[in-house]
Fold these 2 entries.
Entry 1:
Amino acid sequence: MPTDADQTSEDVRSRILDAAEALLRRHGPDKLAVTDVARALSMSHANVYRYFGSKTDLFQQLVRRWLGRLEAPLAAIAAEDGPAADRLTRWALTLHRQKREKVSADPEMFAAFDKAADRAGGGPVEAHLDALRDQLRIILEDGAAEGRWPGVGPTSAQDVFTALSPFSHPAVVLADGAADRSEQLRRVVRLLDAGLAAG
Amino acid sequence: MPTDADQTSEDVRSRILDAAEALLRRHGPDKLAVTDVARALSMSHANVYRYFGSKTDLFQQLVRRWLGRLEAPLAAIAAEDGPAADRLTRWALTLHRQKREKVSADPEMFAAFDKAADRAGGGPVEAHLDALRDQLRIILEDGAAEGRWPGVGPTSAQDVFTALSPFSHPAVVLADGAADRSEQLRRVVRLLDAGLAAG
């Protein structure tokens, strides 16, 4: 059970991340300095370092939180009870829409976070991709349990994720002008659905 | 039937492209100037412009020729008589290997051509992608004629190409450190094979 002290600590962490995200949006990743984050919160930079061991750690948590926001609605679809094939379609369409929105609604922010993600090292991005593959694994295993997808095996989540990645990979979505390719995505999902069903 | 004059003309075009490619390799796309190409061939720049209407045209032909070299071995696989599923696997593996080689064997050259491709506009790249999709269409239609793939329809070549693109898209291959993902590619091809077979 969390204590009051834990909650306060979590609250301070969250406020530091809010301030850092606001500065990142305003000035870009190159100018994000721990001292500016501390000043924005009227806090010593030593205090910021109590919560984040280094600037890299702060970057990593920031990127992880940003990418984590995408995961919640997708996790909800993965956790539903309905037919797996329908959930696979909605999961893939939602991910495609989210990535297009990130690229098109706020391209500067997308670029800033993309650069911040580079600086943060592969950690937060890998954690995001792992979370998405885990969601896909839940849907595929449910489809196997339904008897619809006898072809589901240990690598299926990874393979289906890769085959669908042209609809969510930031570099591809960006190169594509964030175009809405939902119709093609539905067809590719149907093809994979049929392949998994064939076993 | 080509005349001697045509052959000579084709030969001059080819020599101009050779010189431009050598300069691109040596100095990068930013410094590629028509006057330097002409000088390397002891030819007036007006003569270069007789063969290429503009520097953009020269860039486009250069990128088209470079990408065209990748297409020949793939076209040969598409044109074979053997079972379509086997040809699809070899076609996809060959494309994956080629793109990894381009990225890893000669990263500066890859970057230079990538930049030149940007400057050339989408034309040469689109022509390359169209050629690859046409090859895939031949294989898929052969598989439909064999009776193996009743699921092949008007958009199948485009859809299968997209699902396989994570193994050949330059940005993805580059971000991936040109890693050999042949094993996963085989699995994705098997999944698509099963999906097309299900109809």
Entry 2:
Amino acid sequence: MSPPTTKPIHFFDITSTLPSPRQSWSPNTLRTRLILNYKSIPYTQSFISYPDIKPLLTSLHIPALNDGFLPYTLPAIIHHHHQPSDADSSSKADTTAINDSLPIALYLDHAFPTPQHPSIFPHGPTSISLAIAVQHLISACISRSRALIMPRVWNILDPRGQVYFRESRERGLFGGRRLEDVRPEEGGEEEEAMWMALSGEMEVFVKMLKGDGEGVREGVFFEGGKPGYADFLLVGFLAWFERCDRRMWERMMGLGDGGLRRLWEACEGWVDGMGEDAGWEIS
Amino acid sequence: MSPPTTKPIHFFDITSTLPSPRQSWSPNTLRTRLILNYKSIPYTQSFISYPDIKPLLTSLHIPALNDGFLPYTLPAIIHHHHQPSDADSSSKADTTAINDSLPIALYLDHAFPTPQHPSIFPHGPTSISLAIAVQHLISACISRSRALIMPRVWNILDPRGQVYFRESRERGLFGGRRLEDVRPEEGGEEEEAMWMALSGEMEVFVKMLKGDGEGVREGVFFEGGKPGYADFLLVGFLAWFERCDRRMWERMMGLGDGGLRRLWEACEGWVDGMGEDAGWEIS
């Protein structure tokens, strides 16, 4: 019986005009990138333009995530895996194609287990509960960031992505207002009010990284000395600002007692890691 | 050198007119009660009326928690502990008096360690991060519950507590509106809208208890098979409704796939546990 063989994971990210390794910018896709890099999973990657996401997922038979405003989303991965069958010693070929960051995280952690690959849920169900809670808290931060950052996201997209993003976001998120009219003036009162609301939501992460309220804890991660998926959720969010609005990102880094900066610095290598670029023709 | 001796923990709860063991009703104080019962820490207890909380804490030299609307809060505990001094074999007497549920939780877990007492943070920093995240999420649920439950809280308070509660809450939370005018009509549209907002916030707990989105996980707790402080935060919140608004509580129990009910049932014994009643004269 031959040992199981696998082709690399293929990872679909959303493209931008930023030069590599900062081409990856989405808070959602970066979660998956961080996992692949942290777990040292070999992977190839394709950067996809916004209007191509739906045709891509349809061609991969990945169903719509929801019936809301954004039913087709990245990240997505494909995993071709050949496993020897127990029954007849012949090999069985399977292909898994999934999207949505949490299912991908659970899949990758299962498919690439310890001890070869460190777990992103190092404390089992506790880590998973923590990740789901943090994802919920990050969603609140993303909502609070919309008017601040969405107009800046547009700046870094490829031309086809810009057209799609403007049309869908202006209609779906901002009631038809132009992106240029949504972003408050830099340094003005309105921006300050939005920042206060956002940084208020982020206060919980400062507390969590501090741990026991006394500032005495080991390790820079939510789980202490070992990174986990919960960290990658927050770091993906921070990287979104780092890519799109460096001034606001600097402000974020200054929150609390430096815990966010320490977390960022510990994870930066996994934010920037890249797979091998591989073209992808959408059928 | 004689072994360390300790007097029981003394626990201050907020009183109500409900008969024991349901006399304890506050989502905040119940967190501490759950810890004491789960960890099998011997304790005495006093039930305090709202207007007596500030004089009590002042007499115990417990400072105001914040400069907000409710600076003096229960739960609070007192711990008299005699420990043999390393230096001279004489014994040293210490008294710890603290309030605020998370500092109390961290204190009790440290002062009553394993293996004699099971930990409420069984996965160390991961459990603490989880608890801080859940506390934040529960605060959002408490905010969403105010208009629904505060008028019902009044019903179960002692007469002095009722006067204090009405005055402080009508002024501090409801802009001077009477408690009777805040609660929407049972079964009406306004109540339904509030319920939808609240149950929407609670959706994250349903997901967390389900675990991996596939409904396959071991154990009924956030951390799998072992209860932790994060569970007690949610159960304290659920018990608040069970005590004050049984109809809404039944609706909560029906959320999701039964995970909240299973959690409740697993924790019910610790919700109802009582310490030995001990009078307390406020100096």
